[in-house]
Amino acid sequence: MDVTIYHNPACGTSRNTLEMIRNAGIEPTVIEYLKTPPSRAELVKMIADAGLTVRQAIREKGTPYEELGLDNPALTDDQLLDAMLKEPSLINRPFVVTPLGTRLSRPSEAVLDILPETHQGAFTKEDGEKVLDEKGKRIV
């Protein structure tokens, strides 16, 4: 299965998402989007395919969101996209693209909705939260 993750290795949510993909027996294409940001067209498509608004795809925490005045409701989607492309840290993470769909994997287990049920056993997130049981089935 062709899977792409827009990844930030410094982010626990992103690391957990990447490991859940690998737990499904898939080695994804890993794009460190802070080094290699998506094009405008790719970003627009990911946001739309994930069913989000541009504003929902912006990361506020740990970014220049406030200092750039991006909380201004008068800003257009194009203005927000311009800011995200100029400063990739504003792109929320991790976005995952698979043939089964696109998700902003926050929380990380949202990625399970777009992966095949081929998980290779239990999965526990870095914080100790159990996500998959020993049979690879989602714990609700």
Write the layout of secondary structure elements.
Blueprint (H helix, E strand, L loop, with lengths): L3 E4 L4 H12 L5 E4 L7 H10 L27 H10 L8 E4 L2 E4 L18 E2 L5 E3 L8
Parallel strand pairs: 1-2
Antiparallel strand pairs: 1-3, 3-4, 5-6
Ends apart, CA distance between termini: 25 Å
Average pLDDT, to the nearest integer?
Answer: 96
Q: CATH class, please? A: Alpha Beta
| Sheet with the most strands, sense and barrel status | 4 strands, mixed
| Total number of strands | 6
Low-confidence stretches: none
Number of domains: 1
- The CATH homologous superfamily corresponds to Glutaredoxin
Helix content: 10-25%
N-to-C series of helices and strands: EHEHHEEEE
Number of helices: 3
Radius of gyration, CA atoms, in whole angstroms: 15 Å
The CATH topology is what?
Glutaredoxin
| Arrangement of strands in the largest sheet | 2-1-3-4
Return the structural class.
Answer: alpha+beta
Question: In one word, what is the shape?
Answer: elongated
Annotated CATH architecture: 3-Layer(aba) Sandwich
